[in-house]
Amino acid sequence: xxxxxxxxxxxxxxxxxxxxxxxxxxxxxxxxxxxxxxxxxxxxxxxxxxxxxxxxxxxxxxxxxxxxxxxxxxxxxxxxxxxxxxxxxxxxxxxxxxxxxxxxxxxxxxxxxxxxxxxxxxxxxxxxxxxxxxxxxxxxxxxxxxxxxxxxxxxxxxxxxxxxxxxxxxxxxxxxxxxxxxxxxxxxxxxxxxxxxxxxxxxxxxxxxxxxxxxxxxxxxxxxxxxxxxxxxxxxxxxxxxxxxxxxxxxxxxxxxxxxxxxxxxxxxxxxxxxxxxxxxxxxxxxxxxxxxxxxxxxxxxxxxxxxxxxxxxxxxxxxxxxxxxxxxxxxx
Amino acid sequence: xxxxxxxxxxxxxxxxxxxxxxxxxxxxxxxxxxxxxxxxxxxxxxxxxxxxxxxxxxxxxxxxxxxxxxxxxxxxxxxxxxxxxxxxxxxxxxxxxxxxxxxxxxxxxxxxxxxxxxxxxxxxxxxxxxxxxxxxxxxxxxxxxxxxxxxxxxxxxxxxxxxxxxxxxxxxxxxxxxxxxxxxxxxxxxxxxxxxxxxxxxxxxxxxxxxxxxxxxxxxxxxxxxxxxxxxxxxxxxxxxxxxxxx
Amino acid sequence: xxxxxxxxxxxxxxxxxxxxxxxxxxxxxxxxxxxxxxxxxxxxxxxxxxxxxxxxxxxxxxxxxxxxxxxxxxxxxxxxxxxxxxxxxxxxxxxxxxxxxxxxxxxxxxxxxxxxxxxxxxxxxxxxxxxxxxxxxxxxxxxxxxxxxxxxxxxxxxxxxxxxxxxxxxxxxxxxxxxxxxxxxxxxxxxxxxxxxxxxxxxxxxxxxxxxxxxxxxxxxxxxxxxxxxxxxxxxxxxxxxxxxxxxxxxxxxxxxxxxxxxxxxxxxxxxxxxxxxxxxxxxxx
Lengths: 333, 247, 286
What we know:
The complex is a heterotrimer.
Chain A: H1 4-25, H2 28-53, H3 62-78, H4 84-106, H5 111-131, H6 133-136, E1 142-143, E2 149-150, E3 155-156, H7 161-182, H8 186-203, H9 208-234, E4 236-237, H10 244-257, H11 264-282, H12 286-300, H13 304-313
Antiparallel strand pairs in A: 1-4, 2-3
Chain B: E1 5-14, E2 17-27, E3 32-36, H1 43-51, E4 58-63, E5 66-67, H2 73-78, E6 81-83, H3 96-107, H4 122-134, H5 150-162, E7 168-172, H6 180-193, E8 198-202, H7 206-212, E9 215-220, E10 223-228, H8 230-235, H9 237-243
Parallel strand pairs in B: 3-8, 3-9, 6-7, 7-8
Antiparallel strand pairs in B: 1-2, 1-4, 4-5, 9-10
Helix pairs in contact in B: 3-4, 3-5, 5-6
Chain C: H1 3-32, H2 39-57, H3 60-86, H4 91-113, E1 129-132, E2 135-138, H5 139-161, H6 163-173, H7 175-180, H8 185-210, H9 217-232, H10 237-257, H11 262-276
Antiparallel strand pairs in C: 1-2
Helix pairs in contact in C: 1-5, 1-6, 1-8, 1-9, 1-10, 2-3, 2-4, 2-8, 2-9, 3-8, 5-6, 9-10, 9-11, 10-11
């Protein structure tokens, strides 16, 4: 009898193995899409750590995504010979800093105030990006070439799709797994508990303000990492990456996938991108379609697709009808 | 002997409404101090000020010689102060075990750690079980809060208060709403778990008060009427007058 | 600088428009604790309905009358059948719903009217200019400001001089109490929400000829309206007036004095208010 814990690790290993096989079984077009899905899966997972786990509705997550995306592009263009790693690390560093500073302002407020402020900040960042078109490329955007990956003993060419896909699978995949692990760590549990009863947490010795700030910064950095790979994948970035639309996208993905489970947002990213790809061939109005699904979910199935799936499977892990993740106890084995 | 907890000339106004006026109380270490008084006298407000939920309008609180008047609530807890709530204030969606563990791991320094999982911590989990046993909730440890009886929920409330290993425990009407039998059990449990620690307890039930307390302060319309040992409180005319009309 | 009075008047006109949009928003938020993201979408609907009606009939006065009524009906339906449903799930869900609605409305508008700006041309009296203290100034902008004053005064009269007004103000303060006193609070909510939508729609009708009518207009005014209610204080009508004037003039003169920074000025004002007095100039601490 495999314990729940070991089963989870098996599933993760299987997914990675499956992922590793993909370049051999799918066409280039689909591999491209798969890379995009992985990047957005991290973006959505990071967003759900805020929304589903901490109960914070932010309309500004694209600030970090776009920041990471632009940092990679701008640094690769203006710093000759910059390595891939360093560009990505730079992106993470800047988004961490931005997350910490903006978090300090934004997190003083809760609920609707907070949502409103994040929207305003996102708009501000977008406005700045538009105004600064000498650096950000304005409407035309910035084009880059993926630098090769120098691993000390060998150099891996990143120009081709398959190699970059593996890099994405490895790095972004690892980041997603770390997020999953995080939900079980002390900090992850603290975040959940704060959503449950913040006041009691204070009387149990938790500095809830610091906790929120740490989480906000952490999720911002993750979104920045996703943004960095976004630029590397498309080898192009424009101000749309930092727009409120980009926040709307991740909100839709996360919510439709389901905020009540860890894997919901991953499913949401998958569904969203697939639908976007195929539906956009049929009609220009596919965003309307997504919007309708979203509103339907809000009205009828607040737990999203993952709630539907779990109801079908008849599994229970704490209360699911509220669509909130719960600290599920792992079996003592 | 310098006072363990010193409440100095505390005033509390809520938009013009004077709830507490000139409160002076000294609590000695390991004392069992009951605060009683008619409804609306300001007892819970006093607790809120001691524990850091509200700031006093004026006056000071000294704990172990340190002025904690402006210390935030979570820091006061880290200093060894813990309080319970009159209306059960727990983590509704979690199990008893997870509820208690939230405090235990706070004490053990596992609050913001990104790498360590509370599930893997033998010491934390053992301590959590021990506390659950102390309050008599061992049998229902892995059940959600919603499945507990009222008396069990009040026991959980106390368990969470204890989980951070406090030196100074504030219990706010722990036996409110309990049956006679449950109250008797609760008295014995509170006696057991607060042994060797300092206790301040707000209560309406005089049986609880006289069973547990070695000192009683009577609060009346936001002022301390008298603060003395139980025998003298029992016969104090002012106290009797204050309670005329109650029961 | 002879331009200053002109910019000042421009500021007034925009302030008037902002007030019309924000007044409903702040009332709804103050009373129901729902930040209606769809509010600006309704503004946009007002503009588009007016555009179509104007094309069909050529009568602007008809648009001013009918379009707000249409939005009133839409607002009532939204509140009664959609918003109320998610009320039980909590504030987060209400926000998500209004946000989703805004998204859908924007997409519908793009579908029906096209994803490009529409020009609204007003002939007649409103299309002319008039001479005012030596300046030639478009009548229309004065009209906007006059409209705003008219609506604002009417609202103030209702809120402060009628029995309904007392109930509404009480509900902003403490809606549970009002419910306990026997008033049909759900009906009040529907009414207020619908009224907010109608007001927003009216603002849209008025904005059409002034600003461009295009699918992005909702977002544009949404941010400014949000800033108005943050600065003015949630639930405060007086705050909305003062803040609208402040921001209207700031936008107007900002373009003149600090062209590079003009975009950020409004945000900086909001940030300043949030730091100094988070509940807004006239707001109460929630």
